């Protein structure tokens, strides 16, 4: 429920603060007084877009703030989901800077316009003339029927299962698509895998083979140079080993005369040992060199094979080829297993579908049970609103298709005149007739559902006299279970409000301003008398106004 509304520097409103109560409140004022400004301000705190022209004084900030009592609205999950502090008395504020930049706050926490809109639509329902067309929308018609039928919890269960079924259907589509793509690529992937698998690639093999290939390619030169080295090291009398041995023998003779000579002898002894070891290594290396043209050819072919594979798959190491082979193997196995996954997905879908059909059937039964009584209640209200010959029917047809709210198709059929064929709402009903149908529906809904603050903008267009009086009665009755505001030009409706706000213009210091005031009982008599007498406070108008009020 909207408890307070504060408006500063918005359009023609300089500053106003309104205290609102539960029940039925009427809003009156001359044409052009600024009642639409009030609706615009409410629109801003419920998420409508704004611009710099919203500000009355372009140099000042525009601020609109509403205080809502939301303890019975079951909005805790919304606040938790949006990471906002839940307060039973929630403050919503909208600020528009002179630059046109807009900011929104819920309980002093900055929020996006989308968050504000999501909360706003659950707090305030502004029913203007263009919104009358909601009644022709199928989703709205289902909402009316399901609310009246008490299907709220059943529908929640259906929607949960529907989302699950849709998810399973999406998985099946993905699997079928994967199978189709796999079939197209399977042969090629199988070829690539076989080629890599038969290559029997080992980690680091290419690098090792490159070294072997260098040795085989230069085998003759290597053998020749190793032989020369061995000759220089071990040739008798002139080889390095014999010369070092002779030098070592000479130093051995003098080593006993000085520690220096002893050190030189020992160092040369170490050199002799190292040279002897090198000589043996050269011998072994020379023996290991394989001067084999066939081995050279085989190694060269293997290196070329690995090089071509790396070039083909645009990789630089044999480990990448191994990883690719393993990945292809996994993809091929997945392709072979997809049929099993598809069958499993189909079985899961069949189970989910059976559950959906069961709940959809329960929804259909509940809807069918509710239709006659709902038709009767709406017809009763329409007749009281001066549509004595109105016909209203709800057509429900069960289908084989799943929708977001069941397996039914619904149509609200209407005719305002006797003997005329009923047609879907919106195809023959005038704007005034649609407004009365919407009022009747909202009145029925108000008895079965916790509705947000409901604001009717001139729903009384096209009615007068006794019908207007009955419309006022319906609005007053709706106000007994919800907060309802109605902008009206009819005294018959204004007289039935539990509270009365007046919107009017004044000229102050050369500037036109819109003001909103709450009327006292005495002021209401005067206001309604003016509505009756066109501005004349005749005794009969005053008396009539009192009668309407009491």
UniProtKB/TrEMBL annotation:
Keywords: ATP-binding, Coiled coil, DNA damage, DNA repair, Nucleotide-binding
Gene Ontology cellular-component annotations: bacterial nucleoid
One BP annotation, GO: SOS response
Pfam families tied to this protein: SMC_N (PF02463)
Signal peptide span: none
UniProt keyword Lyase present: no
Source superkingdom: Bacteria
Coiled coil regions in record: 261-288
Protein's UniProt keywords contain ATP-binding: yes
Molecular function (Gene Ontology), one example: ATP binding
InterPro entries from the UniProt entry: DNA_recomb/repair_RecN, P-loop_NTPase, RecF/RecN/SMC_N
Every RecF/RecN/SMC N-terminal domain range: 2-508
Similarity remark: Belongs to the RecN family.
Function: May be involved in recombinational repair of damaged DNA.
Protein name according to UniProt: DNA repair protein RecN
Annotated gene: recN
């Amino acid at each position: 429920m909207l408890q307070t509304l504060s408006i500063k520097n918005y359009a023609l409103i300089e500053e106003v603060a309104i205290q609102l109560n539960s029940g039925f409140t009427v809003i009156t004022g001359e044409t052009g007084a600024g009642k639409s400004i009030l609706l615009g301000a409410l629109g801003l705190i419920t998420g409508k877009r704004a611009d710099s022209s919203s500000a009355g004084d372009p140099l000042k900030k525009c601020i609109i703030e509403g205080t809502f009592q939301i303890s019975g609205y079951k909005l805790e999950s919304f606040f938790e989901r949006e990471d906002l502090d839940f307060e039973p008395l929630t403050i919503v504020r909208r600020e528009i800077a002179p630059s046109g930049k807009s900011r929104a706050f819920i309980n002093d926490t900055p929020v996006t316009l989308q968050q504000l809109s999501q909360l706003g639509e659950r707090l305030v329902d502004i029913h203007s003339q263009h919104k009358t067309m909601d009644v022709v929308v199928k989703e709205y018609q289902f909402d009316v029927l399901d609310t009246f039928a008490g299907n709220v919890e059943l529908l929640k269960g259906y929607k949960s299962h529907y989302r699950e079924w849709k998810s399973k259907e999406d998985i099946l589509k993905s699997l079928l698509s994967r199978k189709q793509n796999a079939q197209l690529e399977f042969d090629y992937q199988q070829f690539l895998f076989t080629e890599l698998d038969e290559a029997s690639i080992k980690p680091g093999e290419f690098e090792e083979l490159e070294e072997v290939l260098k040795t085989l390619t230069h085998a003759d030169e290597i053998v020749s140079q190793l032989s020369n080295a061995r000759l220089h090291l071990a040739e008798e009398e002139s080889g390095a080993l014999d010369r070092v041995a002779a030098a070592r023998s000479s130093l051995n003779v003098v080593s006993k005369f000085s520690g220096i000579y002893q050190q030189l002898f020992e160092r040369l002894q170490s050199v002799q040992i190292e040279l002897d070891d090198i000589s043996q290594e050269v011998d072994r290396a020379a023996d290991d060199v394989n001067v084999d043209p066939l081995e050279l050819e085989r190694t060269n072919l293997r290196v070329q094979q690995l090089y071509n594979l790396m070039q083909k798959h645009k990789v630089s190491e044999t480990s990448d080829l191994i990883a690719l082979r393993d990945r292809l193997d996994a993809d091929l196995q997945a392709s072979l297993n997809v049929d099993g996954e598809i069958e499993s997905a189909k079985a899961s879908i069949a189970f989910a579908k059976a559950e959906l059909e069961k709940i959809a059937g329960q929804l259909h039964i509940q809807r069918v049970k509710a239709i006659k009584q709902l038709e009767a209640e709406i017809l009763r209200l329409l007749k009281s609103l001066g549509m004595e010959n109105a016909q209203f029917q709800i057509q429900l047809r069960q289908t084989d298709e799943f929708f977001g709210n069941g397996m039914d198709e619904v149509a609200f059929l209407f005719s305002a005149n006797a003997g005329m064929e009923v047609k879907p709402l919106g195809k023959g009903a005038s704007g005034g007739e649609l407004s009365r149908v919407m009022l009747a529906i909202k009145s029925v809904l108000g008895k079965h559902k916790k509705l947000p603050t409901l604001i009717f903008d001139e729903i009384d267009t096209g009615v007068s006299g006794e019908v207007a009086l009955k419309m006022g009665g319906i609005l007053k009755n709706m106000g007994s279970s919800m907060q309802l505001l109605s902008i009206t030009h009819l005294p018959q409706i204004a007289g039935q409000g539990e509270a009365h706000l007046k919107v009017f213009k004044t000229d102050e210091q050369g500037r036109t301003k819109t003001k909103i005031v709450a009327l006292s009982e005495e002021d209401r008599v005067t206001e309604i008398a003016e509505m009756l007498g066109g501005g004349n406070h005749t005794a009969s108008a005053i008396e009539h106004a009192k009668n309407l009020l009491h």
